[in-house]
């Protein structure tokens, strides 16, 4: 008995020593991990992100709401990704229309979380005022720094074009943008906003009040709160770029009284297009109108709407303005100056009583429609998602919670019953599925403004994309017809061809009254900042006969559903040939 007790006592002593050893090893490992994490936080803090911002980020994500699932590499359509403190939840998709994707959902969510965190922290970096005293006003940009001036967004002193880039704004970027539009001065405010004009602001401020660092250029001043850092725009060589940005609008019948119609004029012997365009650019007018030796500057108005062009033969000699037919007809050119009569936008002062959706299939022109609506109404549009690229280009409603009701309408690509019934009414934007599929495929591989390469089009991903997305195009329209409470159907092609009449319908549906001049301003700025440019894909037929048969069946189904709800059917160009 004594021997067994002795063995037990010896075992317990060894166990006690072992437990002590394991506890010490655990504490040492924990200390090492803590030191490593502290080092990472210090490194983040050196970039301007405090360590105590690590936790509030998810709260901010919850406040913002939902992130556009199309920003992921996987083209999975239709999910609603809710960002919360504990988990990212995704409701089940309707298996009838859902594609089979190979990418792991957990991998998508990790990418999404990292991408959003990077965007948020980069936008929230605090400005160290102590370091601003050492800032230089000329780093890589050209032109003279004119000083710090007061800035009132409601009564702007630099009344020309306005640009936003809330992540990459630099002094050089603002100067070049203003110079390309023939402005003499470039002013920056809030570290990310660029204003152009030809006259310096009257009220100067103390230099230290311009204390906002440029979002895309450390060490440079980009204004401050209600303060403008004003630079002289970069001089252009021999006026070549100014001339390149002048666009011929056509030959039009001249109004009866040109002096009353246009606020500025010039009479010049041997007048040329370049002379008139430069004169109107300095006066900050977007139109240069030439009749013989007379040059007039102004805007499109009810008296001169630029809708019914005349035969070009009536305005002879477009190269030599002085030979244009005098009297009844005139030559019209678009100067580099932006029409700013419709660029002011704001959030609704009170919450909207009617919750309106701007719904479309991806690639159907939703961003373009938002541009038109914002400039026509003067109010920001919201989004069910968060797209940093759009927010950085001036769509400030992107970061506003989609249910705040502070925006005139809310962008969505959702087509589930629950999501549809949350809205009181909706503008349903429909585009030819062939064009929509190609536009979304371009966006997926080359962003909002680029084009997918030939390699992308000829890869196996294009057939998979069509097979998955074609059904979504049809189901999106069918579900909104089924569950939508009050709908305005707008076809992208009709909006493009008859902009003003269709835009009037949309504005009236939103219960907003706008002036004719504002609508003409929208027409003058119709393209916005998200029109694709550059080299298009080569001329080849991306759709196989099998793809066409599939898409054509969906076209006939949607056309029949629209007519069944007493809406007009799809435009003729949709109909299978």
Automatic annotation (TrEMBL):
One of its GO terms (molecular function) is sulfotransferase activity. Residues 142-234, 245-342 form the WSC domain. Transmembrane segments: none annotated. Gene3D superfamilies: P-loop containing nucleotide triphosphate hydrolases (3.40.50.300). It comes from Struthidea cinerea. InterPro entries: P-loop_NTPase (IPR027417), Sialate-O-sulfotransferase (IPR051589), Sulfotransferase_dom (IPR000863), WSC_carb-bd (IPR002889). This is WSCD1 protein. Belongs to the WSCD family. Keywords: Repeat. SMART domains: WSC. The gene is Wscd1. Signal peptide: none annotated.
């Amino acid at each position: 008995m004594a021997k067994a007790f002795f063995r037990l006592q010896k075992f317990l002593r060894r166990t006690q020593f072992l437990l002590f050893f394991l506890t010490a090893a655990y504490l040492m490992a924990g200390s090492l991990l803590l030191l490593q994490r502290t080092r990472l936080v210090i490194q983040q803090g050196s970039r301007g992100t405090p360590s105590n911002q690590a936790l509030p980020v998810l709260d901010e994500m919850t406040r913002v709401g939902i992130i556009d699932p199309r920003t992921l590499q996987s083209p999975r359509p239709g999910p609603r990704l809710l960002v919360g403190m504990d988990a990212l939840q995704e409701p089940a998709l309707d298996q009838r229309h859902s594609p089979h994707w190979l990418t792991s959902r957990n991998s998508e969510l990790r990418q999404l979380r990292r991408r959003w965190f990077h965007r948020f922290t980069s936008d929230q970096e605090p400005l160290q005022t102590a370091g601003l005293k050492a800032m230089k006003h000329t780093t890589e940009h050209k032109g003279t720094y004119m000083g710090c001036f007061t800035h009132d967004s409601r009564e702007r002193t630099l009344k020309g074009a306005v640009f936003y880039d809330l992540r990459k704004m630099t002094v050089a970027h603002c100067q070049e943008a203003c110079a390309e539009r023939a402005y003499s001065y470039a002013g920056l405010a809030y570290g990310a906003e660029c204003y152009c004009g030809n006259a310096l602001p009257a009220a100067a401020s103390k230099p230290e009040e311009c204390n906002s660092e440029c979002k895309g250029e450390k060490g440079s001043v980009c204004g401050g709160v209600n303060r403008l850092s004003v630079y002289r725009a970069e001089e252009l060589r021999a006026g070549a770029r100014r001339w390149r940005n002048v666009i011929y609008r056509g030959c039009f019948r001249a109004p009866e009284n040109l002096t009353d119609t246009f606020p500025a004029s010039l009479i010049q012997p041997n007048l040329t297009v370049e002379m008139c365009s430069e004169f109107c650019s300095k006066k900050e007018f977007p139109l240069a109108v030439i009749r013989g030796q007379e040059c007039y500057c102004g805007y499109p108005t009810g008296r001169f709407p630029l809708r019914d062009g005349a035969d070009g033969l009536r305005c002879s000699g477009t190269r030599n303005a002085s030979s244009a037919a005098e009297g009844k007809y005139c030559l019209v050119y678009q100067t580099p100056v932006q029409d700013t009569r419709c660029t002011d936008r704001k959030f609704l002062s009170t919450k909207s009583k009617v919750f309106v959706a701007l719904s479309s299939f991806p690639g159907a022109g939703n961003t373009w429609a938002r541009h038109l609506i914002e400039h026509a109404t003067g109010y920001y549009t919201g989004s069910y998602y968060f797209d940093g690229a759009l927010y950085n280009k001036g769509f400030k409603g992107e970061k506003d919670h989609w249910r705040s009701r502070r925006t005139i309408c809310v962008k969505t690509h959702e087509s589930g019953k629950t999501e549809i019934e949350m809205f009181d009414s909706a503008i349903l934007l429909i585009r030819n599925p062939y064009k929509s599929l190609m536009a979304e495929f371009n966006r997926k591989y080359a962003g909002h403004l680029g084009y997918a390469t030939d390699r992308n089009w000829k890869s196996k991903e294009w057939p998979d994309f069509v097979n998955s997305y074609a059904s979504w195009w049809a189901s999106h329209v069918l579900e909104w017809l089924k569950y939508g409470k009050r709908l305005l159907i707008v076809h992208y092609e009709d909006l493009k061809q008859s902009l003003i009449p269709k835009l009037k319908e949309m504005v009236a549906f939103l219960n907003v009254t706008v002036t004719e001049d504002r609508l003409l301003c929208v027409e003058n700025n119709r393209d916005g900042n998200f029109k694709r440019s550059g080299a298009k894909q080569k001329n080849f037929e991306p759709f196989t006969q099998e793809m066409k048969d599939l898409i054509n069946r969906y076209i006939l189904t949607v056309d029949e559903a629209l007519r069944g709800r007493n809406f007009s059917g799809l435009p003729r160009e949709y109909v299978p040939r």
